Amino acid sequence: GGGGGGGGGGGGGGGDPQLWFVADDYDYSRGKKSGKVAVPPPADVAPRTRTAAFASVLKRLLSYQGEAGGDDSDRSAAIRIEVVKFLVASYASLELRCKGSSYNVCEGPLCDLVGVRLWDAVPRRRRDLEMRRDGLLRKRYGSFVARRKGGDETNPGFLPDLVRGLLEAAAVLGRGDGATDDGGDGGGDNDGDAAMTDEIPARRRSLLRARASRSLELLLDLLSHPRTRTHVAPFLAARNVAVRLASSALYRRSRGGRPDFVLFRQQVDMLVDAERTEVAAQEEEDGASAGSAARAYHERAHVLQKLLHRHHDRECAEVIFAGAHRVADGRWLRKRVGDWKEETLYDVCRRLRLVDDEDAEFEDDDTFESARRLGCARRELLTAILLYHTSLRRSDADVLAAAPLYPTEDLLWDANSVPPGNHSLGGGDESLALPKLNARFLGAGDYLLRNFRLFRLESAYEIRGDVVDAVKRMRPRLKRDGYEQNNVGDYYGEDDDAGGGAGDETEFAGWARMGLELGSKKREKPGLRLIRVDPPRLGENVPSSVLAEAVLDLHHCATSLAREWGEVGEFDNLFLISIDAREMTDEAPLAVDGRKVPDEEDCSFPRRYGVCAVRGCMVLEVRDEAGTVLSDPALAHQEGGRPEAKGKLRYLRVALDPAQYAADAAAGRLGVYGTFNLVVRRHGRENNFKAVLETVRGLMRGGAGSVHRSVPSWLLPILLGYDAGGSSKAGLATSKDAMLDYGDTFVDVGHLRESFPGCELTVDGQKMSDVDGAAKGGGPASSHGRKKYRVNVVEAFQQDAPKVMATTYRFPPSYVGNSVRFTPVQVSAIRSGLTPGLTTVIGPPGTGKTDVAVQIVANLYHSFPTQRTVVVTHSNAALNDIFDKVMERGDVDERHMLRLGAGERDLRATSETSHDFTKGGRVAHVLARRRELLEEVQKLSESLGVSGAGERGSDGSSAYTCETAGYFYDRHVKGRLEVFDDVIAKQEESEKGNGNGDVLGVFPFTKYFSELKDVKSLSVEEARTKNGKIESVFAQLTECRPMELLRSQRQRTDFLLTKQVRVVAMTCTHAAIARSRLVELGFHYDNVLVEEAGQMLDVETFVPLLLQRGEQDDDNDEEGRGNSRLKRVVLIGDHNQLPPVVKNRSFATYSRYDQSLFARLVRLGVPKIELNRQGRARPDIARLYSWRYDDLGDLDHVKTGEAFRKGNAGLAHTFQLVNVEDFEGRGESTPTPYFYQNVGEAEYAVALFQYMVLIGYPPEKISILTTYNGQKDLLLDVLSQRCGAGAGGPLAGVEPGAVSTVDQYQGQQNDYVILSLVRTRAVGHLRDVRRLVVALSRARLGLYVLCRAGIFMGCHELRRAMDRFADKPTKLQLVKGEHYPCQRDIGAVVSEADLHEVVDVGGLGALVHSMQHEYVADQD
């Protein structure tokens, strides 16, 4: 219930109860029961029997809670909290399915708990009204009532009890010292409840807060699930839960900044938003426009006006005759309602069936009693209820438009919104005011809004760490001399108090690489100066732009540091910080359990360092002292390169956040812009958050670039979690008459037959048996060499076998082509990728995911010449790998390939070629190719006698351009080709079809082709091939012609991108950055292939699907949604390996922000293809992780290959878990918090590496991995001491292939891996089985794990892998006398005399030391 390992049981500590039912992995814990309440685990196995067992458990838990309802003891309160936590965990598993089936164990009982039975708890008059509106609801409720009368149904009233307890907790916590913080009288009815919260025991107060926060968390979860929202939303609306909580004294007190009540306020605000999204969400799913929600509220306004006209026409005349838009305006209506009598206000609410004191079935429905308990006036409560029902809420798009993109100091150090990254620092198990990502969403707006908020908060957490680091290094302090600068505010002509004088009394005693003091005191230049504030655009409320100028003084910077700051350029994001040393306090840093909390996690940091304000900005222009614009990209391409900057001052034109500026203006805080005295920059790859947020915000605005236009109608329901098994099947079926070009997918006809088992195969009109006979007999299959194939698969009907009809065509001898003999499952994935729809491919380690991706790209390139394919990966390394393999094939023209992204600055060339796929490289390639082609035209012209060598340029270049070459073709080449074709046609006709004779005498281009000078004959086929080459030259020149017309680099790259390139690749980060630019250019594409999909955040995979504008179809698109060209989406990844990287673990665990779109779709049951043969590791090593997959086997080469049949030289086992005891009395250590190291394991790993190198292993074939960054740094230190350049001996300068963490090494491999697990007190984050799979699957031939064996072998989550290690000893066993490469067979038994067992790290170190001495002696 309360989290813990495996997502299942476990409650709080101490005497709190623990629940032992595991809801999300369909297993039942069988440990020792602890705590005072334990539910015995059911023993049933069948899913439907498990459902009955779960329903029984649920009923017992809820009934126990009911028994405890009358007991106000702390124990009973703790039990109620644990039950709510259990339900939160259970509802989070609502979309899970049993393995191998589509059945969910928990879905039925959980949905029934919040189903139609809730209408029993809705006030009668409101229930009757809703039943009259919805006939289906009336029918379902009638069936429920009938079953209840028959004794088949019970209504435990769980949710009503939960709401009643929540309101009671809010009432008790809100009772203060008789007055509310906003100056109200608290309702005037609190005399009977004068007890103060201060009189409540601390334990009781803590339980009440936990009960309120957990109850609100559960309500928010229920409203976010489409299945549970159906009845929960109207129930909460009918009971006015959100309104009552927002009207309570506790809510008002939290407005004053009470930190212990801020969480309550934030959660109530989220509940208000979640309740009021009902109309918008329904309209959005129905496909209506954004104005539908407004129309619904306008209809409510009309109802209110009619009611007032009928019953209160005199008192409410102003409202009656106002426009509907006015009435739906909450601020306007509040002022008018304030003039009504309280009796009138109550009568209006009662007639609208919002309240009814006379017929209140529940005590808390009475408005008098409810207002008294909550500490507010009855009139205020009634007003809030009426406005909540009638007033129109802002749309999600408007909310995002007004939301600042850059975090401020308030957000950065808000522990509820941006919690500490480590659970133990933030209370560990507490609720948070954060949205959650589910498997299903209420609509596209709900999906984007949740991702926007989480992405912004995760970015704020990372920014906070960078800001804290820079501020600490700058060491702000009060000035020690009496010198004072002029007030910065005077520079702007503002009041003295506007600037605040922060810079007057503050100086910086340190320096930071990423931080720099703003302004120049020597030149008396202020740090920031506002330049222009443009008025809002039509329909918006924030300025269209806010421009300012920042001054950087580089006089005191070292050369390297000045160079780095000089590289700050256009579109870089900076952070302006105001530090006032006068505000610095002597407050002690936060400590938890006696250990100091890191400053980046400590919310007291801004008080201790005087941080008063933080604002973000984007650089638009950089100028030097001479006024030269240094940030102009064109300067890099001009002759002589970028000019040298003049002086040490840099003037930055920056764009401030308009939304934040408007908020500051409304709050009267514009003076803060004159107090900034520090600027902080961030690394480029970490500083792209603003572009992603702007992209998501742009998608919410609608228009041609909206989600509904950019994503095809068949795909959007799947991505939102609906229709998981419907439209996606389009990607698994081939249309009836489709003959798809599989190209070189099949290496031979036998491979083709193997790839379609059980099918009736026909090749070139012959059945497979006939083709086999021809091949065996030396027929066409062998005489013509390798072929390419076009294949049509006709699905089976009834009892017939599927038919596969294939045709062959010539395989060009100049191509390398595909050399992989794909398995039938891989072929199925390739086939699915060629057919329209969604394809989901799960690729376990070593199963050839990249090879499949490359083959799909190549096949799409050949099958659909007019379509464009976008390839998206998570890392630049993966893009390099894909481009390497595509170019090795040789059949994809490199002029049709383009690489986008900021990584192009340091993009390496491919492994065996010098191709540059960046934008600049592609333009240079086209221009170079143009010169080559024009040279061919010049040679052709000279061979025909049209021009002479004297007409060439002064440098010998061709005299032709693309334009004149076209004229030359029309006048001199085209006619000759036509004449030649006519002659050949007549010759073939005269020879009655036997037209393959000698045509050398009539061939018009004999002089052009030098190889024809000494040839005595030329066949028709050879002549036509040469004519094709000539026509290809002019065809390519036609494509190059725009390069002559377009002069700027940007215009040329834009042309290539939109008109010529057919394979465009980028990372998911760059896709978000470039989206607006691509949509503006009119970029279109038809296919998307996403590699590493399991490592991308949900929204990072979603955005690449939206890189184009929807195509309007006025005839068929009545709603103006437009049509998307997107036809195929291929997602390739592995959800069993590490998820996306989320630095703040609170977001990952609480909000499920590390959920990838790929994993979510697999979780929902979208049809998938799982590759089932691995070709990376030895079979015995693969068995360490293959249990995580359904049917993972091995390819033949890992069984029969020479390297796999031999053992590992000098090592008795191919894999082994080695127990490492404390080294010098110490195991794991943490020099700084959460920076884990283990000296013993580091020494052992380096000694083992040294031993392997000394017996001949190539060092580049060995990787040393660990699970913690601290251990990685320690390993590098030990390696530098033992194997550094100054170490001496045979190992001096020797380096392993890689020293990395497991997380960073995902996607890579090596022959031998030494793995250090570091921890000796607890398992740590290796408890996540996905990290274990990555760690164990990096090695091909040898894996040696160093750890504390007892800790890891005793871990339940790791048991399946550790049981395989248990078959081998836990002390490293070496084989004497062997050297690399090994001659011993893998199954050979090593004699006891040849074995050497290493006792500890000291023994291994001594052995290595002696081996080095022997080596030196041998050399001497």
Tell me, what's the shape?
Answer: globular
Helix content: 40-55%
State the low-pLDDT regions, or none: 1-45, 66-71, 177-197, 279-289, 482-500, 729-734, 773-784, 906-912, 1113-1121
Largest sheet: 7 strands, antiparallel
Give the end-to-end Cα distance, rounded to a whole number of Å. Answer: 69 Å
Rg, nearest Å: 36 Å
What is the average per-residue confidence, as pLDDT, rounded to a whole number? Answer: 82
How many individual β-strands? 34
**Strands across the major sheet, in which order?**
3-11-6-9-10-5-4
Beta-strand portion reads 5-15%
Count of individual helical segments: 54
Task: Kindly name the structural category.
Answer: alpha/beta
